[in-house]
Every structure is written in structure tokens, then in C-alpha cells.
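Lab notebook page, bench 4
Experiment: in silico fold of construct C2
Operator: M.H.
Input chain length: 149 residues
Purpose: comparison with the prior construct
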Amino acid sequence: MNIRACGRRLRADAGFTLIEIMVVVVILGILAALIAPNIIGNVDKAQVAAVKQDIRVIENAIDMFRLERFRYPTTDEGLNALITPPSDPTVPFPPGGYIKRLPKDPWGRPFVYVQPGTHGEFDVYSLGRDGAPGGEGVDADIGNWDDTK
């Protein structure tokens, strides 16, 4: 065999055929179709769990507010009453506030606070993934009245 023939043979064996590439693409597509629904479902569950945890933290801060001021923040004051000192310096307010910062829900929206609430003395809730009242599944409102904390 001469050198020229050997060089041609190496170049011919160096790449993948179209059929080999198509087989790999089909295998990757099948794997993605099987794995993606499991991952997406877990992301939704994690977001709902994060909302519930944030609501618990906000509820604790509201309870501390009530212990010091003998009332809950009004709807007009909102959750900002937990981080903003009152204009009257004689009203008790802990250094740094009752909570360091107000969290947003996993979809980037602020939590809703209503006092008096329709489900209790106050309601703290997220409007869910869709950002609209009501809904089902991940789009449902998630609030402090939810028994599955």
C-alpha cells in the first residue's frame, strides 16, 4: 500500500455517517421525552413548597408584630409594616424589622396580604403560577389557610 492510498482511507473513516448521527439524535429525543416530564413536575412541586415556606416565615413575622403592637398590620399598611419603621419613634420596632426582607413568590410577584382575612384573622397568599385569583394545580392560590403546610 502506498502513502496516498493510506491517507484516503483514513479520511474516509474519520467522520460519522448521516445514519449514525440520526440514530444518536433519535436516542437523545427519546431520553428527553422520558426525563423532561419528571423534571418539570418536580420543579412545580419545589415552587409550591417554597411558597409555603415563605408564607410560614411571613406569618411568624406578623405574629411578632402583633406581640409588640397588640394588633395585626392593616391591609393598607400591608407587609411593608414588617420592614419599615413607624413614623412615631415611641412605637416599638425591632432593629432590622420583623423580617429582613419581603420575599417574592417563585414567579417573581409579591405576596398578597389582607386583614381581616376571609380565611382567618389575616390572609397571606400567592396567586400561583398564573398570577390570577383562583386556578387549579400550580395555578391555584397558595395561602396560609392551606392545610397541607
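Observations: Residues 44-143 form a domain with the Glycoprotein, Type 4 Pilin fold (CATH 3.30.700.10). The chain has a mean pLDDT of 84.
Next step: discuss at group meeting.
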